[in-house]
Amino acid sequence: MKRSRNLTDRAIGEIVLIIDGWSGPLAWNDVICKIEERSGHRYTRQALANHESIQRAFQNRKSASRSTGNDRRPDSASSELKSAWQRIDNLEAENDRLKFENAGLLEKFARWAYNASCKGLTEAILDRPLVEAQRGRTDDR
Predict the structure, then answer these.
(1) CA 32 to CA 36: how far, in whole Å?
(2) SS3 2
(3) Contact 24, 96 (CB under 8 A)
(4) pLDDT at residue 37, rounded to an integer
């Protein structure tokens, strides 16, 4: 087992995809083992749950697995059909997670808009473009 590295944005994205594609009962220990199997790094539940996108994906998948119940697909289906069903399940889980994340971002935006208006900031001020970074430039003084 490799020493656990810090979770990068890429690693977090890969972990979220693992959770999105999860089938069957979902538990942190199983997710940790799957991550270790794929990446060679073992993380604690606390380290994973400390990242909001991983925690949201886990909660969303957990609630989705409760509501779907038993899978009524025949066991005799072809491997191509089973693969297609798995892809559909993964995409539906990702879609559900993204809807949940979007709702959270809309809520945050409404809160920011309210707080900005309380401080006298107008939409015109908030919509100003960012100042371009002046990296690598020196002034001839």
Answers:
(1) 6
(2) strand
(3) no
(4) 92
Q: State the DSSP string of 8-72.
A: PHHHHHHHHHHHHT--S---HHHHHHHHHHHHSB---HHHHHTSHHHHHHHHHHHHHHHHH-S--
Residues 6+ apart with CB under 8 A from 15: 7, 31, 35, 48, 54, 57
pTM of the model: 0.58
Q: Are 61 and 30 in contact (CB under 8 A)?
A: no
Task: Report how far residue 41's alpha carbon sits from residue 18's, in angstroms, rounded to the nearest whole number.
Answer: 14
**Sequence-separated (6 or more) residues with CB below 8 Å from residue 57:** 15, 16, 19, 20, 97
Return the pLDDT at 29: 94
Shortest CA distance to 20 belongs to which of 50, 52, 64, 83? 64
Q: What is the mean pLDDT of each run of 10 residues along the chain (141 residues)?
A: 72 91 89 92 92 90 67 74 86 86 91 94 92 75 52
Cα–Cα distance, 58 to 48 (Å, whole number): 10
The C-alpha atoms of residue 139 and residue 26 are separated, in whole angstroms, by 58
